[in-house]
Design brief:
Mean pLDDT: 79
Strand order of the largest sheet: 1-2-3
Number of helices: 1
Shape: elongated
Low-confidence stretches: none
Helix content: 25-40%
Distance between the termini: 74 Å
């Protein structure tokens, strides 16, 4: 006698398909909204390079970021970089 294999979620057929499609479309909509909001906020920023002759070609990864001043507000929660923000 053959045993039935069950689904871990217990949803079969068209109902499961519609739920999965709804989750994927809502995820796509949320990520698209976040990308557009980030791009619009970043487009309002300008930057200025201070002391360009002090920039080293070889060095630690984040060392040269102290030479960049960004005019505008920070976008996102990035705390790793050392950019200076001015309004």
């Amino acid at each position: 006698m053959m045993e039935k294999q069950g689904s871990p979620f217990g949803i079969h057929g068209i109902t499961g398909f519609l739920i999965a499609t709804g989750i994927l479309l809502s995820t796509l909509a949320g990520l698209t909204y976040a990308a557009i909001a980030t791009q619009q906020a970043t487009a309002q920023q300008s930057y200025e390079i201070v002391d360009p002759l002090g920039i080293k070609m070889v060095g630690p990864n984040l060392e040269n970021e102290t030479h960049v001043i960004i005019h505008g507000n920070p976008v996102g929660g990035d705390t790793l970089h050392k950019y200076k923000f001015e309004k």
